[in-house]
Amino acid sequence: MDYTFYAKTTDETREIGRKIAEIAQNDGVLLLGGDLGAGKTTLSGGIGEFLGISDEITSPSFVVNKKYADENGDTVLSHYDFYRLGDDVGIMGDELREDIFNELFVVIEWGGSVLNFLPRPYWRAKISMEKDARKITLEKIA
Ligand SMILES: Nc1ncnc2c1ncn2[C@@H]1O[C@H](COP(=O)(O)OP(=O)(O)O)[C@@H](O)[C@H]1O
Ligand SMILES: [Mg+2]
Prior knowledge:
single chain, Rossmann fold, globular, binds magnesium ion
């Protein structure tokens, strides 16, 4: 189950985020890879739209985690960016486990140090910058 998308604009990256949320929602965990500025947080904005979140999704890089509620007030999305923590995940690892247990949709940027925490299957998307578009691949990790 592999998908490849191309986004030429920020809006297209968001639209692909909506599609990815639809594909991955039942498994609940999405790892987002790609360099700084590739579009991981932009894509997360599309995921938020799909989940019915009216707040704009913003980078959680300083606070590491942000949670979002849908229009019913139910918390539905937990968005992590582990860039700042490096390998020293600390108590945020427990927080991540709790979000997975609570069946939130969990989106993780810079998740290399939390792979052991993830349930199987999960989904992995990678964004790479090509000449005139972002290439976005999506695969299910069994
Ligand atoms: N397909 C695209 N083409 C051109 N620019 C894009 C595209 N997708 C996103 N961007 C822009 O690239 C930047 C990516 O920032 P961000 O989503 O914060 O990246 P990351 O979270 O990967 O560091 C934003 O300014 C966004 O508007
Ligand atoms: Mg980001």
